[in-house]
Amino acid sequence: MFPTQVTLVEVGPRDGLQNEAQPVGAADKIELVHRLQAAGCRAIEVTSYVSPKWVPQMADNAEVMAGIARRPGVRYSVLVPNMQGLEAALAQPAIRPDEVVVFGAASEAFSRRNINCSIAESVERFRPVVAAAHAAGLKVRAAISCALGCPYQGEVSADEVERVVTLMKGIGVDHCGIADTIGVGTPRRTQAAMERALRHFPLVEVSGHFHDTYGQALANIYACLEMGLHTFDASIAGLGGCPYARGATGNVASEDVVFMLRGMDIDSGIDLDALVDAGSWISGRLGRAPVSRAGKALLARRAAAAAEARA
Ligand code: HMG
Ligand code: MG
Question: Which 3 state secondary structure label does DSSP give 161?
Fold first, then answer.
């Protein structure tokens, strides 16, 4: 049974930009968030409070949070890998996020590369983060990376996914995000991983995060929609990648997801034309063409219509 409404968590400012080799100024990050919220995005992952030595692109986290003119009804989230990150995120009341994301992995090898500790150690690190975030009134999402495959370990089983899901549940996270970091998942395997998450979290608190490396992301989202899932991460202009996942390319493009949902009469609350404009703008700032297929097609249609009007 398909949902009638879907929540997209726009991760472009964080996942989309964290992997950019060229420096992106805080002003551009802020402008991107403003364009996304103006297009109707109601959940935006803005930045991460991680070590600037590990991810230099996110070093301006506080500046970006401070620069956003917040809109009522929009949830702003940030990644925090440990107490140091949470404390920085909470340090100034005016720039507090609404939500924090702790990020673990279903693969030991990836956990070590990405956050420099084992899965078990990461969960113990997250335990006080979850408690302190809750005490501060924030919601906590957990992201489980490499749930459908790992660049170092290879195959990742549904049992391995469920093990981390239960560990995250045990420390009290509110939400469980299943992430295909390197985009190798296919629909049935995606459904199998989601089914394990749904054994421990309600439908409303399970989401999918699909990188599109092998062109499977929309198919995987469709497979999740069939299960009634209705929360997905997506990234404007298909930006993204993880610096610690070799070969991982961008996330599913938000424009493509909104185009598909619109065609299925599923409401996302997002204005596709404004989203395409935001994607075109950030791609221009980064000096590249948008990766989104729907974005490119709609821009070409607009250009053709403008040329016809001039003729
Ligand atoms: P570590 O080196 O083991 O940490 O890194 P440590 O506790 O030993 O501290 C070492 C240094 O880092 C110290 O500084 C700390 O102060 C500093 P020094 O004394 O050397 O100057 N430090 C911090 N600085 C700022 N903020 C902090 C922080 N913590 C320590 N929060 C650590 C461990 C987790 C910090 C590091 O591995 C790290 O920052 N990793 C982040 C990696 C990352 O951001 N990856 C991308 C995001 S995950 C992702 O993209 C996947 C996702 O999209 C889903 C999917 O697609 O799968 C979510
Ligand atoms: Mg990601």
Answer: helix
For 226, the token pair is 């069939």
Q: How far apart are CA 55 and CA 53, in angstroms?
A: 6
Q: State the DSSP H helix or E strand holding residue 231, giving kind and residue range, or none if neither.
A: strand 231-234
From atom 30 of ligand 1, which residue's Cα is the shortest distance away?
51
Q: Which ligand is nearest to the CA of 235?
A: 2
Asked if 117 is an active-site residue, the reply is no
Per the listing, tokens 């949470």 go with 86
Ligand 1 centroid vs 213 CA: distance in angstroms? 25
For 243-281, the pLDDT digits (tens) are 888 777 899 999 999 999 999 999 999 999 999 999 999
Closest CA to 238 of 272, 201, 279: 279
DSSP string, 274-287: HHHHHHHHHHHHHT
Active-site residue identified among 41, 146, 224, 242 = 242
Task: State the amino acid at position 61 in one-letter form.
Answer: N
* Block residue for tokens 């295909």: 180
H runs (alpha helix) in 136-230: 158-170, 187-198, 217-226
Query: For residue 145, which atom of ligand 1 is closest to its CA?
Result: 57
> Sign of dihedral through CA atoms 278, 279, 281, 282?
positive
Q: Which ligand has its closest atom nearest to the C-alpha of 240?
A: 2
Q: Is the CB of 82 under 6 A from ligand 1?
A: yes
Q: Is any ligand 1 atom within 6 A of the Cβ of residue 54? A: yes
Write out the two tokens for 261: 């949902």
Q: What is the mean pLDDT of residues 141-155?
A: 97
Q: Domain-by-domain residue ranges, the chain?
A: 7-310
The domain 7-310 having CATH identifier 3.20.20.70: the answer here is: yes
